[in-house]
Structure formats: C-alpha cells, structure tokens
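G., the chain you wanted modeled:
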Amino acid sequence: MAIDEPGSAPTGENSLACTVTFGRSSFVGRSLVSALLKSGRWTVRIADPLPLPDPSADPLLSGSIRSGRASYFQVGLRDSSQLRHAVAGSVVVFHVAPPAVLSPPLPPSDFYRLYTETVQGAKNLIAACRACGVRRLVHTGSADVVFDGVHGIDGGDESLRYPDKFEGVLSELMAQVEILVFNANGRDGLSTCVLRPSNPFGPGDSSFLPFLVAAARLGLAKFIIGTGKNMCDFTYVENVAHANICAEQALRSESTSVAGKPIFITNHQPVELWDFISNILEGLGYQSRPTIHLPVKLVLLVVVLANKVREKLGFGIPSSPLFTPAITYTLSCTRTFNCSAAKRLIGYSPIISLELLIYCCGEMKGRHLHISFHLICCFTGSSFLEELLSHQLPKSYCWLQSFSLSMALYLHPCRFGFNLEKMSSSYFQVSESTVRQSFITMASLWNKVVSVLKLLAQGDDWNVFFKAAGFLYVVKLLLPFPLSALIGVGLTCLFSLFIIYEQCEEEVDKLVSTASAGIRKLKERMVANLPSFLVTYLQELKN
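Predicted structure as tokens:
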C-alpha cells in the first residue's frame, strides 16, 4: 500500500478534498474518516504522527487509498512544512483533538510535550490552513473545557464561560486551542467552529472503557462515589463524526451563524452515570453491580492522603489515574448539556441512540458471547472486545471466536468425570462466635500496642526499648528500596524456604536444634562472666 506523495492532488470525480488530523491515533478521528469515506462525497487526507496501519486492520481505508479516494501523511502537527503539504488542496480541515493517551503516554507533568501537541500544533495547523487557502476548519474538542473539576453542570449551554481554575492541564490547553480557532475565524477567508462532545465513547476508545475495566479488576466496581444519582451526557463516537459533517455543511451554506461559535454535542439522552457504568460492566461480564455508597469527602481524603504518602515515602509506585481528586469529582458530579444550539445551528440530531446500543449489546449477550469473555481477552486484549461489541469483528479473528464459544459450551465439568455442585449459602455465613473472637483479638492487639507504648514512655524497660529501636532501624534500612522489590524478594525467600524445608526436613530440624543449643550455651557463658550486680539486675527484670 503506497502513501501519496506530499502535495499530490486529490482524485475522484465530483468529490471534495478534506484533511482529518489524528485520523488514526484518535478513535474519534478513525470514526470520522470512516464516515467521510462511506459517504462517497469526499477525498480524504489523513495527517497523523503514527505510521500507516496494516491493510488487514482497516480494509475500508486500504481500499480507499488504492482507489485514490484517500491519502495518508505521516506527519505531526509540530512539523509546519509537512503540515502544509498535508492540507494543500483541501477545502475543509477536520481538526480532531489529539488523544489524551499518546504513544508513548504523556503524563500531565510533561507540560512541554502536551503544549506542543495541542496548542502549538493548533497554531501550526491554522497557519497552514490560511496559507493553503482552506475555506473551513471544524475543531472537535471536549466539553471538559467548561468543567472546573468541582462543581456540577446541569443543562449547561454555550453561554458557559471558561472556569477560573480548570480540572486539569489538558482541559486548560484544550481551552487555549479553542480560543485560537475562534480568533482564526474570518481571517484569509477561513470559517471556523468548535464542537464540544461530552464523554465520547465507542469502538477503539482508549480511555473510558479501559478505565472501567481497570477499576473492576481492582475490585472497585462495587463502590459508588456520592449518592449515585448524578446525571451525565455521553456521546457515541459515530454521532460525533456525524456532527462534524453537519458542522461543515452549516459552514458551507452560510445560512446560519455557526462560524466562530462553540457547539455542545451529546446523545440527547442524559443518563444516571452509575447506572450507565453498571450496564457496561455487566455487558463485559462483571456480574456485581455497584451498591456500596462512599461519601465524596471521605474518598477525597483517602485519595489525597494516599498520594501524599506515595510522594513523601517514595516507594517507587507510579501515580494511578484511578486515584485522583479530578476522577473523584467527575464520578460524583452532574454534567449535562443543552444541545438545542446544535440542532438549530448545524441541524445535528443523533443517528444512533443509546437504546439501539443497549439493544445491540443485548442481542450479542443473547448469543452467549459473554461466556468466553475472559478467555478471549487473554488471547487478544481489550481492543478485540471493543471491536466485538461494535459488530466490527475482523475476519482474521472469526476462527478464534467460533473456537472459543464452542470450547466454552462443550467442555462441561461432567466431561471430566465429576460434577460441580452448587454451594449452600451456609458456607458464606460467619458465625457470631467467629466475629466476636475476631474483635477480641483486635482489642487484645490494640491493648498490647498501647502497653508497649506506655513502657517506652516510662523508660524503665530496656528490653522493650532495644526491640523497638531495632525494629525502627530495620524499617529505616528498608525504606529506600521500592515496595515492589521488597515484596518480590520476600516472596522469593519465603517460597525458597518452604521448598528447602520440604526437601531436607530432617537436616533442617537438626540444624535448628543444634543452633538453639549453641545459643543457649553461649548465653549461659556470657551471663556467668558478667558482674554480679548486672546478673542481679537481669534477674529482677526477668521476674
């Protein structure tokens, strides 16, 4: 598959040339490229920093490149000269925001690279559009630019201003990109507008679905932060692509005043966030729905303290995106938007509703595809599952699907000579005596700790003092090492001791008894050589 030379003219009769940025690395960009190619009215240029995908991974794109209806430019937005070649000859540029997780991932601390990928890249793209005579620029950003990370938004519209303090670095940079796009409107004949989709999701999503799966694997799927009644707007990725096409048509017709304005894009169906999450997790095979409510302030306190301890002690544990104050507020706040402007200005209405998505997932589940979910993920990863749920299963995996389903249905436990009986609920009951004994043990441990602390405070028991000092010294020696390394060494030594003892039990017992006898004799000799007043003092301490 050949990549078109920079600056080559688009081909195809009665077709308009357009350029899509991040048409491969962003799942929104991939969906937009597919929608443009399927319409048959566009010659699509893709400008992306990643190399051209394998032909089998995207048959539509590879076929369009062979027929001349698409061209691929491996170029980043930081390269101004190559960027001008990519947009030359296009009448419209669809600027999809770079994905929050690039390859390699860009953490919020890497501000310079985030800035160059977003703000500086947008500056270069706008300059290329003006230099090459591009007529229209549609930028797809995010509704997060109006969210301060703390206060909820209920039915927000385009009159909302940017917050005084943004949710995170990426949201602030996205807001700067929007301002650049607004300021470019009307200059050198360029018309611009900004789309703000709320929580886009769909095939190829590398943030929302993996986030839920990671939380579920950590056992966090049973918890609800806050009341669980907060509403949120989600937008299916194909609806975002459809909104881009509607915005371009509105800019071209000039019959509406959409130029230079932001437009919120949603599915027009606000849902309870935790109910939506529960439905997704059930579709992925996690049977337990979130039922345990946690106060928002309590979760925030735990998150802040955990991050502080990690930063101060430096155990070598990287910060997790699951445990941040921003995520806590996002999962507990209401975030809904009024999309009447999208219908009035660009004629947008969702082409795929949430009911249709739920129905499709129900049909898929009805075919027992959920039986082999864990087995399939072990072989193919989460990206395969996303394609499976979106009815876009590659042909190269069809054999694996059939094989996995057949094996899951055929290998019944009775085939191996035994049956798995249903366990009685009594196995999971905890008796009152067991609970009472557990609390008594905890109280005893607490009293023992308090007693030791009192002895240390009085300063009379040197035995306790030296034990505490030795313990603290050992802890000080271990603190510089990463926690993961200490756990690994500890488990290795523990299992090694078990294996050695199992293989040489008699020899180990003899060695332990001999060492104990030697230590006792050494102790007796040392005590015999001590002055009499020390012997008397040690006997008093012992009594």
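The two ends are 89 Å apart (CA to CA).

Shout if anything looks off.
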